Amino acid sequence: MLAIGGYFYFKTHNLNDYVLGGRNLGPTVTALSAGASDMSGWLLLGLPGMIYTSGFNGIWLAIGLVIGAYLNWHYVAKKLRITTQQLNNAITIPDYLSNRFNDKGSLLRVITAIVILLFYTLYTSSGLVGGAKLFEATFNLAYQDALLIGSIIIISYTFLGGYNAVSWTDFIQGILMLLALLITPLVVIFELGGLQQGLNLIQTNAPEHLNIFSGATLISIISLMAWGLGYFGQPHILVRFMSIKHENDIAKAKTIGMSWMILSVLGSLCVGFFGYAYVLASGIEMHDSEKVFITLTQLLFQPWIAGFLLAAILAAIMSTIDSQLLVSSSVLTRDIYQALFRKQASDKELVWVGRATVIIIAIIALALSFNENSSVLSLVSYAWAGFGAAFGPLIILSLYNKHINKSGALAGILTGSITVIIWKNLTGGIFDLYELFPSFILAWLAILIVSRLTKTTNE
Q1: I need a labelling partner for 422 at 20 to 30 A (CA). Which of 217, 249, 389, 441 fits?
Q2: Among 50, 369, 78, 94, which residue's Cα sits nearest to residue 227?
Q3: How many helices (H) and strands (E) does the chain have?
Q4: In whole angstroms, what is the distance from residue 194 CA to residue 191 CA?
């Protein structure tokens, strides 16, 4: 990974290269890079841990994610690729929205940038926690030492190579993740004596794990499926659509990306489900359900194979953090530094400002990650909801509705992000609903209503 970062250090000549790879990526790299940066460490830590704890009722989350990802590829990818290039070659999400809504005063650009930086700091923190848990469990390191080691590796190659380094490392990491998620559950099932034996074991000891409706309520099912709404607003996924070499490559990329995703999610579900059966059968103790994949690899495989599989967790974590760091860096560089302070900055200056901001953002996220009791899935869910609600409705409507305007866009971003923050801190009754769902709906309505009310003065 560091070697790839070093290689692309010498291939990066301007800000477009550093933050969007010169719009020159092929469909295969785009697809696997989008998938790997999307899934992150929660695919090998958070999701198996959830299924381990609650059983098959967690499948609603997987269903929602697959539907959301497909709709994002189908309706957003190609149109966003074409539109961003037409709108003065926009290379960041704030850049696109500013150009789309003729944001002469840069208010929309700045608000968008602030929201991105806020939620990406939390998102990046979740990845650093995941990496620390991996090193802590594998090498018996102190949590803080593990956190620092993982952070230094990721920051280094993102700092050096920019978008191309991030995308090509994501491509390799995506392959590694898929192999790990196919191999591990197959070996677990074999060790249990077959598929039926594993199912019988769970049926005897925890029959509720086999029922997708066990312990589920309407609110919990809607909450899990609502995760799919988040795809439309994730900047690190949307920039993958913007960077593909040609819009006609989108269809091929969609096929590759969705195939990778479905196989990976199925593998992750099986790791948690049959991992639970294996723990029952072997009588071992496991105190942190998010470490089920780590525990299985250490128990079932020879050291060199276990090392390969554990590297997949690091790959998953790295592939998301590097993308988040780069998007945050591009926003600070393009949409704050250049747009507001240094409009005439040279390409070389902007690239180095981008590299410097990678380090600054990483240090802030690192400071938030020192609590070793942090839950990967919990941190991810907050940031995922924030992006999904703040930008999802706006991205869709900006591409398909000519009548929305700058005031509506601002209303949508603020409504979505503020509702997420408030809803997250309320509990009981309707407030147990995942904050993304109500925030997405309210943001969508805010965009349409405010655009209509301000039509005569701000269109």
Answers
A1: 217
A2: 50
A3: 19, 0
A4: 7
Question: Which domain CATH number covers 141?
Answer: 1.20.1730.10
In a domain, 390, yes or no: no
In a domain, 112, yes or no: yes
Residues 58-108: pLDDT tens digits?
889 899 999 999 999 999 999 999 998 888 888 788 889 988 998 887 788
3-class DSSP state of 184:
helix
pLDDT for 459 equals 44
- Per this entry, what is the length of the chain? 459
> Could you tell me the two tokens for 187?
């070996």
Residue 458 has what pLDDT? 43
pLDDT score at 136: 79
- CB atoms under 10 Å from CB of 97, counted, come to 25
Which residues partner with 244 through β-bridges? 25
- pTM for the structure as a whole: 0.83
Give residues with Cβ within 8 angstroms of 273, minimum separation 6: 51, 52, 55, 56, 202, 209
Cα 350 to Cα 293: distance, rounded to the nearest angstrom: 41
Does residue 417 sit within a domain?
no
DSSP 1: -
pLDDT by residue (tens digit) across 276-310? 888 888 878 777 787 788 888 888 888 888 888 87
Q: Say whether 244 sits in a helix, a strand or coil.
A: strand
Question: Encoding tokens for residue 315?
Answer: 């790959």
Distance CA 324, CA 117 (A): 9
Distance of alpha carbon 304 from the chain centroid: 29
Question: Does the residue 75 lie in any domain?
Answer: yes
The strand pairing partners of 25, in sequence order, are 244
Tell me the one-letter amino acid at 259. Answer: S
Amino acid at 459: E
Two tokens, residue 285? 């103790």
Radius of gyration for the alpha carbons in the chain, expressed in angstroms and rounded: 22
Q: What is the DSSP letter of 374?
A: -
- Considering the chain, what is the average pLDDT of its residues? 83
The two structure tokens encoding residue 138: 């594998």
Do residues 261 and 43 touch, judged by C-beta distance below 8 A? no
User: How far is Cα of residue 200 from the mean position of the Cα atoms in its chain?
Assistant: 35
Report the domain count for the chain: 1
Residue 87 burial (CB count, 10 A): 14
Q: What is the pLDDT of residue 161?
A: 61
Within 8 A by CB and 6+ apart from 47, the residues are: 58, 61, 62, 265, 268, 269, 272, 377
Q: Which domain holds residue 164?
A: 2-99+106-373
d(CA 292, CA 377) in angstroms, rounded, equals: 14
